[in-house]
Write a structure and sequence with these properties.
The chain is of the alpha/beta class. The protein is built from ten helices and eleven strands. 44% of the residues lie in helices and 22% in strands. The strands form two sheets. It has a six-stranded mixed beta sheet. It is globular, with a radius of gyration of 25 Å.
């Protein structure tokens, strides 16, 4: 009788050990499995995110970051239409809020990450006497480059000129870009007299443009960049880890070097 009890106990312990080993094995394997994370990010983050992607390889060598850079409005539409995305980083809170209300992001993962500024720029070789946002409505400017209505920098621009009471006059001489990098490119190439972009875009241009001034204080909503994990992310844990990394010392140093401020 005693031998049967001992045998039963051995069998139970063996079965328990097998189950524990069986449960732990996949977790160990998954940590080393290659993961591709799809990150949809505002066009103004193009340069700094590519730099951060390099440093992230040392933190998560099994993770490949695949970026889609465009206007936040375009990215919002792509996500709504089912485009693959694990992480979304917007150049404005409007697009993130819309996706959150539609149940497409994990609300608890939303983090207001960065702050930027809106500036007026001219080509480096410009000889026009443009000194303020108000000058855009004068004879000094024949054409100004600004973002479309779906583009955050375009929305901030409309806010600024609505505040100044001259939005209609600006629209009449505007060339509308599909994202902030398109606006920057037109100014760099001298295709327009001036343009309105983020301070970080102007900084990334080097000596191709000159910053005239920042937008008048109080003329637009704060330029805040929120980041979040998408609800349908294929790799939610890895996506959250990358969002967390964006607040690390290494990432903060890269953001600040690019001209961003942390929120």
């Amino acid at each position: 009788m005693k031998s049967k009890k001992v045998l039963s106990l051995v069998l139970i312990l063996s079965l328990t050990l097998a189950l524990l080993c069986g449960c732990s094995a996949p977790a160990e394997q998954s940590s080393d499995e290659p993961v591709e994370l799809f990150v949809s990010a505002a066009a103004s983050l193009t340069d700094v995110f590519q730099e951060i992607a390099e440093s992230y390889k040392t933190v998560a060598p099994n993770v490949t970051l695949t970026f889609t850079f465009d206007s936040s409005g375009t990215l919002q539409t792509q996500i709504e239409e089912g485009a693959p995305a694990d992480v979304f980083v917007s150049a404005a809170q409007k697009q993130m809020k819309a996706l959150d209300e539609e149940g497409l992001v994990l609300s608890d993962s939303i983090k207001d990450l960065l702050v930027n500024k809106v500036v007026l720029i001219v080509p480096a070789a410009s000889t026009l006497d443009i000194t303020s946002f108000e000058d855009v409505t004068t004879d000094k400017v024949s054409m100004v480059a600004i973002g479309e209505a779906s583009v955050p920098v375009g929305q901030y621009t409309e806010e600024i000129y609505t505040y100044l009471g001259t939005w209609d006059a600006v629209k009449a001489k505007a060339n509308f870009g599909t994202n902030v990098r398109a606006v920057l490119g037109w100014v760099e190439g001298g295709d327009v007299d001036c343009g309105i972009v983020y301070a970080t875009d102007a900084a990334s241009s080097g000596d191709k443009v000159k910053v005239v001034c920042e937008a008048p204080e109080g003329s637009h909503k704060p330029v805040v960049y929120p980041a979040a994990v998408l609800k349908n992310a294929a790799h939610p844990e890895e996506a959250q880890a990358f969002v967390d990394y964006l607040s690390s010392d290494e990432a903060v140093a890269a953001f600040e070097a690019a001209g961003f401020a942390m929120n």
